[in-house]
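Below: protein 1.
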Amino acid sequence: MTLSPVIGTEYDELSNEVFKTYSDMAVTVPVNAVMRKRHANHYLNVNERVATGHGRVTIGNEAVCFNQGLLGVMGKVKSRDPKKHSVKVEFERDLEEAKIHNPFLAENFLKRELFEKGMLTQITGQ
């Protein structure tokens, strides 16, 4: 493989940008010196996470749902079925329902705070 190493940076006043400058002399490096292979069970390997429908889900750990109807709901993994690519999750219904709040909670809080500090003259939308 042929590489042109970076030899420095320069500033272009017209475009107000810093850019890299490369050497005119190319360096030849064997590909095996650049490429390395991770261990098959390395935690960043994509194959372990996407090869199965349930990735690295472990029984007993907490999980966050990304299903359309349960987006953001947390539960505990009860079992998983590699053949069906499915995971069974147990939810604490009362706890999860208590988390549901007004979607404008942050906006309403900021309006109230600004009104109390005199930075807003009238609270609208409440």
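Below: protein 2.
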Amino acid sequence: MGRMSDRAAAAVPLRGLPAGVWAMGFGSLLMDVSSELVHSLLPMLVVGVLGASMATLGVLEGIGEATAAFVKASSGALSDRLRARKWLMVSGYLLSALSKPLFPLAASVGWVLGARFADRVGKGIRGAPRDALIADLVPPSMRGAAYGLRQALDSVGALVGPLLAMVLMALMGGDLRAVLWVAVVPAIATVVLLAVAVREPSRGDPAPTQPAAPARPAAADAGGPAFSSLHAGFWAILVVGALFTLARFSEAFLILRGQQAGLSAAGAPAVMVAMNLVYALVAYPAGKAADRVPARRLLLAGLCLLVLADLALIAADGPAWVFVGASLWGAHMGVTQGLLSKLVAGAAPAHLRGTAFGLFHLVTGVALLLASVIAGVLWQSLGAGASFAAGAAFAALAAIGIVVTGVAREP
């Protein structure tokens, strides 16, 4: 009976998803238009205009993402303690919006670091409360679809951002700073949308068709998070998530690989367009499938796609193979990212859901810092092929981790 209801829910997920999930999806879309417009031009700003090295870019990218991860750990736990998530999420989007004018004003790498830091702190504040709020709003049988929808809309924004950067660079004669100013507009629109359209459920009520959560342990009410309430399955997901992230360093390196393979500065963001187009097309169907197909199969399929992407990028001797690699990279993201969120939500008690997402983002953010620094140093010393070969090796380790830990074994 339960399996039949899961299938029925999965059959018409778009109709059943709450308005708040759609609003968070479109908020992610708008903010990603802004952030990815900046991100697609950031390598050219840092390396081309400000004269920094590839290793510096790797450190800059890693610090930015690791900062977001550390803040997510605190904001997730705070959303559990306050028993409120919406306004933490909105405040994070607001900080990111306020950081956007700093990029076109940057006169040195220090300015870019400050802007990136503020933007990523904002991302950190909003990430875990938003992901936990999605789980609060939908039943377990539809979480794959809900996270897949958010990831798909997020990816549409990530597709539009670089595409808009390309168009504006052409229209504005390559004026990098003028194009960066455009990113301010969708960032502000995001804050307005979420403040108005998202309604947080009463914290005393379970999500629709979801059994009521067990009583909250006294430790969770009195002070810090009750980590002992996080089951072994969650910690296994944490390990696998870290290995996934080590295999998938910053996408900024895809843009630079495109330039290395012969794309112009104006055309290089097309690599991100290709990646995010595939990501957007795959994310929702993959999320919907995650409500029916064993998670282990999807995780291993995603890793295979990532290894193929790395091999294509290693072999690339022209733009065509870079686009193949970027497309496979996007397919990997579409298959795995919403699924990992679903697994985290399912492995955590409702009263510690924000804490669980915060810990997950913390660990994967530290892994991304390591991955980006490693990729930058390898590229600087041994060339692009070494960076992508290391990514393929970490993907193989992640596959081994899935087998050894027994993660994602579902009934």
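Residues 309 and 325 are 4 Å apart (CA to CA).
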